[in-house]
Design brief:
It catalyses: GTP + H2O = GDP + phosphate + H(+). This protein is of the alpha/beta class. Helices cover 52% and strands 10% of the residues. It has 19 helices and eight strands. The protein has helices at residues 2-14, 20-36, 41-55, 66-81, 111-124, 141-151, 165-178, 196-209, 225-236, 255-263, 284-291, 298-307, 314-317, 322-334, 337-342, 358-373, 377-380, 390-400, 404-423; strands spanning 99-104, 129-134, 156-157, 183-188, 213-219, 239-245, 267-271, 279-281. The protein has an eight-stranded mixed beta sheet, sandwiched between helices. α1 runs antiparallel to α2, α7 packs parallel to α8 (196-209) and α14 (322-334) packs across α16. Bound molecules: guanosine-5'-diphosphate and magnesium ion. The site of magnesium ion has 5 residues, from α5.
């Protein structure tokens, strides 16, 4: 889907004359791509006419950029399609009885990995999550969950011998309720294909554990199959959210549009790798940019360079040190054009500044800056957070008057942002000749 949508816009971009016919061709191609992705005919027809109305080409001033008008209208419409209106259930810290979140999806979609990522995400926020392995179908399922859970230091429950997923799920939920966990995550079996037995099992596990939220996990590369899969699960269990995995590969994640349409639920996170920290809050705008082939593009890179304060080119020429991150944070606090551009970088700010919690996010950035103020020049000039050993961390915590945990949190944030920053082709035109001494 992504390919054809992006292709349609790219062709429009290359057209020498953007006349009514070029625009109509582009819209037809977009409609075809949506139909191929199993978006319902009625929806596609609505989408197409809304794009036409929004782009409002006949009302454009002569000489106005029609390509841009169409592109913006398509992007706006896709954003609208990805927003089913209702926000999904969000677990609350310290909530008792605990929230129960059940994960469903076909085998291989990334459920078990995503359960651990989701648990770890909330653990970092101060929750007490726990994992329950109700997959008794796949050999080694419990070991896999155990391994993931141990890595993230999250308590887990499962059995090697019991083959009744409903019983294990209920026992796991009861166990962790008694242990006053506030978020219990139930991983389930996916089998090999869609089959009646799988959906019946999901229905039973759901009825027995009464989850507050059922998350449908889908592989970002499945495209057209997403609608059927999502709909089939939705018919058996009350799916309330979608997570799209494997967005680190070539997949553009177009299937997410179908999954949202089929489940009427929002996408809440995306998986961006095999490891536990490879997990990002879903940002609709950057997702659509990527879908349309506009994300991570030279356009954004140029914008970053243009908006960069004068004399700050060193921010992109050198290595991404803690000191560079501090300067980026400073720009975000200033809310000038550079700060705004930074917030457009996919994945950059969603985790730092949560939607609806802008004040808290800005305060957190300020605290991180305070922490970095207690670091030495040498420490700030370093790119290896591992070199910040325990005694250095303690010293910085004391010096800044912030808890050790927060210093560690800031260093984890650094690792995350450094990874995103390194993917931006900022240095394409200037080789990086900076070599830094180890700390
Ligand atoms: P399940 O069968 O639904 O439980 O899926 P698993 O969690 O076992 O994942 C299947 C495979 O996909 C494993 O090899 C995971 O490491 C891999 N995987 C899961 N999420 C991601 C992701 O976001 N990116 C990448 N590259 N691989 C992932
Ligand atoms: Mg699994």
């Amino acid at each position: 889907l992504g390919g054809s949508l992006a292709g349609a816009l790219a062709r429009l971009g290359r057209a020498t004359v953007v006349d009514d016919k070029a625009v109509a061709d582009c819209l037809n191609e977009i409609s075809r791509a949506l139909l191929q992705a199993d978006v319902r005919f009625e929806t596609v027809r609505d989408v197409s006419s809304r794009i036409k109305a929004a782009a409002n080409l006949s009302a454009l001033a002569p000489g106005a950029d029609k390509r841009r008008a169409v592109r913006n209208a398509v992007a706006a419409e896709l954003c609208r399609m990805l927003d089913p209106g209702e926000p999904s259930f969000a677990p609350r810290k310290g909530q008792h009885p605990s929230s129960v979140v059940m994960f469903v999806g076909l085998q291989g979609s990334g459920k078990t990995t995503t359960c651990a990522k989701y648990a770890d995400h909330y653990r970092r926020k101060g929750f007490r999550p726990a994992l329950v392995c109700a997959d008794t179908f796949r050999a080694g399922a419990f070991d896999q969950l155990k391994q993931n859970a141990s890595k993230a230091k999250i308590p887990f429950y499962g059995s090697y011998t019991d083959s009744d997923p409903v019983k294990i799920a209920v026992e796991g939920v009861d166990t962790f309720r008694k242990e006053k966990c506030d978020l219990i995550i139930v991983d389930t079996s996916g089998r090999h294909k869609q089959e009646a037995a799988l959906f019946e099992e999901m229905r039973q596990v759901s009825e027995a554990t009464r989850p507050d939220l059922v998350v449908f996990v889908m592989d970002g590369s499945i495209g057209q199959a997403a609608f059927d899969q999502a709909q089939a699960f939705k018919q058996s269990v009350p799916v309330g959210a979608v997570i799209v995995t494997k967005m680190d590969g070539h997949a553009r994640g177009g299937g997410a549009l179908s999954a949202v349409a089929a489940t009427k639920s929002p996408v809440i996170f995306i998986g961006t790798g095999e490891h536990i920290p490879d997990f990002e809050a879903f940002e609709v705008k950057s997702f659509v940019s990527r879908l349309l082939g506009m994300g991570d593009l030279p356009g954004l890179v140029d914008k970053i360079k243009d908006a960069m304060p004068a004399g700050e080119l060193k921010l992109i020429e050198g290595a991404f040190t803690l000191g560079v991150m501090r300067e980026l944070f400073q720009s975000m606090q200033n809310m000038g054009p550079f700060g705004q551009i930074l917030s457009m970088i996919p994945g950059f700010s969603a985790q730092l500044i949560e939607k609806g919690k802008e004040k808290e996010g800005q305060a957190k950035i300020k605290r991180y800056m305070t922490i970095m103020d207690s670091m030495t020049e040498k420490e700030l000039d370093n790119t290896n957070p591992k070199l910040m050993n325990e005694s250095r961390i303690k010293r910085v915590a004391r010096g800044s008057g912030r808890p050790v945990q927060e210093v560690v949190g800031m260093l984890e944030e650094y690792k995350r942002i450094a990874k995103i920053w390194s993917k931006l082709p900022l240095r394409d035109r200037r080789p990086n000749t900076n070599h830094r001494d180890p700390l």
